[in-house]
């Protein structure tokens, strides 16, 4: 049995958290790559250095994409709030009675 989920317009689906997480992880991996590339303190192979760089680029890309979605959800939330509070959209007319 499939359970139906209803999401609020004010929910950002944790994209703000994930954007910060991926950006921080990507920057840390990029820092590790740059230190290893410049000084070789860990003595990692070239293949592992390339892998670290690839994951850094992927994490930074995912962070930027999820930041974009976070901004879009924020705009959607503002639009939903404006629609909810807009008094010009309230139906004040009484229905016509048929005689």
Task: Explain this structure.
By secondary structure, this protein is an all-alpha fold. The protein is built from 2 helices and no strands. The protein has helices at residues 15-39, 46-85. Helix 1 (15-39) runs antiparallel to helix 2.
**SS-based class:** mainly alpha
Separation, N- and C-terminal Cα atoms:
49 Å
Kindly estimate the percentage of residues that lie in beta strands according to DSSP. Answer: under 5%
Number of helices: 2
Overall average pLDDT: 86
Spell the H/E element sequence. Answer: HH
Helix content: 55-70%
Round the Cα radius of gyration to an integer and report it: 24 Å
Shape, per Cα inertia axes: rod-shaped
Largest sheet: none
- Oligomeric state of this protein: single chain
Outline the secondary-structure elements:
Blueprint (H helix, E strand, L loop, with lengths): L14 H25 L6 H40 L14
Q: What's the short version?
A:
The protein has 99 residues and is mainly alpha-helical.
Please describe the structure with a list of short key phrases separated by commas or semicolons.
single chain, 99 residues, mainly alpha, 0% strand
């Amino acid at each position: 049995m499939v359970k139906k989920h209803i999401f609020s317009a004010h929910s950002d689906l944790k994209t703000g958290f994930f954007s910060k997480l991926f950006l921080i992880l990507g920057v840390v991996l990029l820092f590790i790559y740059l230190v290893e590339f410049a000084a070789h303190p860990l003595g990692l192979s070239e293949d592992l250095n390339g892998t670290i760089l690839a994951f850094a680029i992927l994490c930074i890309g995912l962070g930027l994409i999820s930041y974009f979605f976070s901004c879009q959800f924020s705009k959607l939330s503002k639009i939903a709030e404006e629609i909810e509070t807009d008094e010009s959209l309230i139906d004040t007319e009484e229905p016509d009675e048929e005689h």
